[in-house]
Amino acid sequence: MRNTVALRRKDRELNSILAMRILENAEVGYLSLACENQPYTIPVNYVLWDGRIYIHTAKEGKKITWLQKNPQICFTVSTMIDVKKADTYCGYGAYFESVVVEGHGRVLQQHPHKREILTALVKKYDPQAQLPPIDEEGENSVWLIEVTLDSLCGKGRYPVQS
């Protein structure tokens, strides 16, 4: 995987290990698609599993249609840590961490590990969930979007520790 984004602020660039950790732990991701010169971004719940991003999805809708027409995607996560206060309005800023992924996605009706991926997705958001195993009917009720990461860029600004 490559880092294709040349950050202007090198002091805020995060290494790939930290960027992957942020990507793994963020609560909401933003999936960006493009079709016929029109952009589309949608917030999604997701899980990072075996080095790929997986998003559960209904069997129809705009995400599916657009992704099938153009598999190139951008996926972004960010976390606001705190407000950087200042003596002037223009001095204000944010402490944050973010990751931008460029990659390609595909719609999967089936996957050899689909039940494991769906279970991991639920466990990410509710680690105490104690549910019966996913049966065939449940597995077939949703599809997956699989995102392969072509590049990854992490950026952060953290409060100075005293």
Descriptive report:
With 162 residues, this protein is an alpha+beta fold. The protein has four helices and eight strands. It has helices at residues 16-25, 62-69, 114-125, 136-140, and strands at residues 13-14, 29-35, 38-44, 47-49, 52-57, 72-84, 93-108, 143-157. Strands 1, 2, 3, 4, 5, 6, 7 and 8 form an eight-stranded antiparallel beta sheet that branches. A hairpin with an 8-residue loop joins strand 6 and strand 7. The longest helix is centred in the last third of the chain and has 12 residues, at 114-125. It is globular and about 60 Å long. The termini are far apart.
Order of helices and strands: EHEEEEHEEHHE
CATH superfamily descriptor = Electron Transport, Fmn-binding Protein, Chain A
What's the CATH C level?
Mainly Beta
Q: Give the CATH topology.
A: Pnp Oxidase, Chain A
Features:
162 residues, alpha+beta, Pnp Oxidase, Chain A
Question: Helix and strand layout, with pairings?
Answer:
Blueprint: E1 13-14, H1 16-25, E2 29-35, E3 38-44, E4 47-49, E5 52-57, H2 62-69, E6 72-84, E7 93-108, H3 114-125, H4 136-140, E8 143-157
Antiparallel strand pairs: 1-8, 2-3, 2-6, 4-5, 5-8, 6-7, 7-8
